[in-house]
Amino acid sequence: MISNYFKTALRQLWRNKFISLLTLLGLSIGISSALVISLIVYYEFSFDTFLPNKERIYRVVIDANFGGFEGHSGSAPAPLANAIPIELTGVEQTVPVFQFQGDASALVRIEEGQSTKPREFKKQSQVIFTNIDYFQLLDYDWVAGEGSGAIGQPYTVVLTESRARLYFPTSSPIETIGKQLTYNDLTVTVSGIVRDLDRPTSFTGKEFISFATIEASPLKDQFMMTEWNDWMAYSQLFIKLETGHTAANVQAQLNRMYQTHNTESGSDITLTLQPLHDIHFNTKYQSIGGRVAEKSTLYGLMITAAFLLLLGCINFINLTTAQASQRAKEIGVRKTLGSSRRQLIRQFLGETLLLTSVATLFSLLLVPIILRLFAVYTPPGLDASFMGQAGYLAWLALLILVVGFLSGCYPAVVLSRYRPAATLRNQISAGTGRSRQTTVRQVLTVSQFTVAQFFILATLIVTQQIDYSLKADMGFDKDAVIKFDSPRDAAQKQQTLLHTIQSLPGVELASTGFLAPADQGMSFTSVTYNNGKAAFQPQTQIRWGDENYLDVYRIELVAGRNVLPGDSVKELLVNEQFVKEIGFQQPEEALGVALDWNGRAVPIVGVMKDFHARSIRAPIGPLLFEKNQGSIFHVRLKPNRDGQSWSETLTQIRKAYAQIFPEEAFNYQFVDEMVAQFYKREQATAGLLGWAMSLSIGISCLGLLGLTTYTVNTRAKEIGIRKVLGASVAGIAKLLSTDFIKLVLIAVVIASPIAWWAMNRWLTDFAYRIDIEWWMFAVAGIAAMVIALLTVGWQAVRAAVANPVDSLRDE
């Protein structure tokens, strides 16, 4: 019986090659999209799930409130790492994770004898300081070295296998033990080798210097191991609770201990235990080197995948029922020979399951290709091999069953309901032009185009907002300006480099300072103005630079003057918003006012025109500028007239940099490109929406083509009679197309208010945003109708030009 069903299914697919191909294509598109999106979602939600006792692992993070300003940090004060094991109960393991040299990467040197030049590896990242608890927490496999003693002593390092092969390609893991590495100026001995973690994790270390090295070296001051009222962005602290102890109890102990040690600002800071499962998804506590995935984005992707999969199922239903009349006699014969309705339903569901399985296999072959095409949207570390995970394979099997059932259930019920007598007398199509099945197909087609219309509108609005954001007036000139960093504590060399760069013919102006006016980072300062009646302490961002900084970025002054050259901070500039927040209505009123800043009274000598210090998602806030030399260079290039001048100038700057800082790599960035990175998330969203729009339109068009085929088949005799009675080709094409245009118009009406509501919600993230206007809905609606007309038109014209004799002659 089963083999008979299988043979019948194959014959049916082969007999209707065109419809089968359309059905397979629609299902493959939906399933491919679902497979790739589900792979991304599954990967993101797999982070750190492999860790033993993961529910007892927490990260110590900071929630601060200084004068109404709320701040959050994924870092923790360094002394906590040594104090927690001694002063707290209920903590099984304490795991410090300090990034090497802060956010900078290391220069690794390997000495191989006096006669051989040392081998160097520049910009080595993922180098951390930690202790033995780190390896126990993550359940590392040791390849070489004593697990418990490998990282307990100062000046020792444990390497992963990949780094050991990189540094010592000809040595075995055992032979690597005892060899020396120098990180910048810190020489350590390899004491252990562990296997690389091959599962998604927030712990990204590859080289592990013993935490005891910090205490035994000058690094103790650099890492502020005795500073309780300050912390570094590159220090993290993890703890694992003992069984039976709650996070609330340990957190209360932690804050009491902290306030005891930090009597200066401890009352303004709350130490919080962040669960391990929250680390990969919480944007409030981002850390250097860490990547955060937004759950809202992942949920949006899941909804998109569900929609595309549903569209594929709807497309299958439309195409299957469209060819129902061709299978009517087969059903009649089977019922006459004794087939029950249940057997017919099993047969049709089996055919659907077969087609779904073929579509899934085809989709699996497409997944690696799609992942490469969508590399910009996929998380780093994800590839097609991740589909071999047991959980994902289970999801894949469930997907085939669910899609097969959803796609085949309705057609199976409809086809098995036909009466043998009617089908064998060729009456199956009588009256079906306006039947309940036709209504269902029309509803499904409207649903398809509603989804497609939503994606069209969403893509259009997101694209408009991104374009507005990129072209918005930031309050400064970001074009033709580059920025690059230089080593800290090298003031004299920086000034030499500055003069060299300024003398280059392709450079208009150069400056040293801090961050660009709008930058990826943020820095706040505490400043107070007391007018004798009230004290104002606005939440203030800070920038600094030399006297050319404002001119490099062409920041306008609305009152007063620029800072004067000098070596000490004697005067300040503020922006218009700062002036308003300390109680003045006009910029001129703030000139000469003394601010309490860093314990000194410093006057305001100029007021800058407001500019965006962040993306235009956030409103412009108070900002202060001081005269100070910094390690970041800001260079305005002269106009690029011949297409080569910038390239030549950048080459000259690179050479000048290499002469003064030969050990450092020169990495520059155009400021306008950096600003564009503010909207990387939105650009990724627009790209994904564009693909979702294209796929949904493609699937919808396949469904519409199926409904057109069905209508043409059921109205073939009517079309023939109309042609015999003198109807024109244009008239018949219009007749057949009108009904479908009505369906698309209904979809436009349904999708428009939904898209308006959803996109208004999305735009609330932007302090400066576009308005959703009527023309956007008109453009999206016209686009949908044009697409529908192109899909339906050729089939309608084909039916209209057909010979009426073929449709009117008796079978």
TrEMBL record:
Domain MacB-like periplasmic core stretches: 20-256
Chain segments annotated as transmembrane: 21-43, 298-319, 348-371, 391-415, 443-462, 688-712, 740-759, 774-794
A Gene Ontology term for the protein's cellular component: plasma membrane
Main location: membrane
Gene Ontology terms, MF aspect: transmembrane transporter activity
Membrane topology: Multi-pass membrane protein
Keyword Transmembrane helix in record: yes
Annotated ABC3 transporter permease C-terminal domain residues: 303-417, 693-802
Transmembrane helix recorded as keyword: yes
Compartment annotation: Cell membrane
Entry keyword set: Cell membrane, Membrane, Transmembrane, Transmembrane helix
InterPro entries, alphabetized: ABC3_permease_C, MacB_PCD, Macrolide_Exporter_MacB
Protein name in UniProt: ABC-type antimicrobial peptide transport system, permease component
Gene source species: Parapedobacter indicus
